[in-house]
What we know:
This protein is mostly helical. The chain is built from 13 helices and no strands.
Amino acid sequence: MTPEAHDLYVRGIRHYENGFLTEAENIFMRLLAVNPGFADVHNKLGLILHQRGDVTGAIAHFESAVTINPAYTEAALNLAVVLSETGNAERAGEVMRRSAQASSGGRASGSVDAYTAKKLANEHFRLGCIYIDMCMNAEAIDEFVKAEKFSPHFVDILVKHGIALRNAGRIEEALAKIRSARDINPWYEPAWIQLGITLYSSGSAADAVCELEEAVRLMPDLKDARSYLEMLKQEAS
């Protein structure tokens, strides 16, 4: 990189970090016009375009970044996240496998590293929560399934997955998910509350009361669980 290109790059990064994305984009495009081989510039442009909703453009730049530098884990992760968002989970997994292999010096790898798995799980979880808020439960369930592939024991994912299943009328599956979360972490209050709500909504008010009583017995300070319990007892009386 020439001194002039380096100065331009520093200015572009400064604009990017300060949130001046249009200015950063203009500088990065100038850099690529001179030398299209800047992997980090492609990655930054991909992030900018993704924020604007230009998924096609973002994918193109992320792909350029990992083509230039196959071991560029951050760019591979960004590419995998966008591919997952567009329903290309299989391709996203392949991108991360290739990246892991490149990063390990060519050694075969069947799984992503822990940091990458956690980040991918969080992205799928975030999308699933958005779908729940939009009453798009089938799409939410798909995202939570993907999230669990990367982090199968995260109780917040399991509980939200259970909520989406309950919303979709799949009560038994919902109960199984939420019970899994409760069993993994018996001190996770949302699992107990959602278990009570799911049982109650399925017509099993007595079972809901029993579960919430157990939650309060284990953790007497659980205000929300105690409130739900009192409400259910009043309705039953």
